[in-house]
Amino acid sequence: MSYDYDDQNIFAKILRGEIPNDTVLETDHSLAFNDIQPQAPVHVLVIPKGPWVCYDHFAQEASDAEIADYTRAIGEVCRLMGVEQGGFRMISNAGEHGVQEVPHLHVHILGGRPLGRMLQKA
Q1: Catalytic residue among 29, 57, 104, 106, which?
Q2: pTM of the prediction?
């Protein structure tokens, strides 16, 4: 599959410093920041700094260093936010059917309260 990265998406603009963010963690290959419309007491977005559209794009084409950094950044955000004890939800939407709104890989880390069921039966 071919992935077309849109370098005008909001996360690309955040990475370029065109839009401010409330940074939680920054590493060589990743950036984590508080969501501007939180859906839980803890709601952090974690994005890779590279031009990756979705997780499968990232997993297939990113370097080992990028993959390791991103995975460890997600774990560190969970530790920093204190959600690893009580539990958390990690969500990454991909494509139209997954209702991905921004065409840049991002993981939502949500926690700080019971979150209920992820999907309701159709």
Answers
A1: 106
A2: 0.93
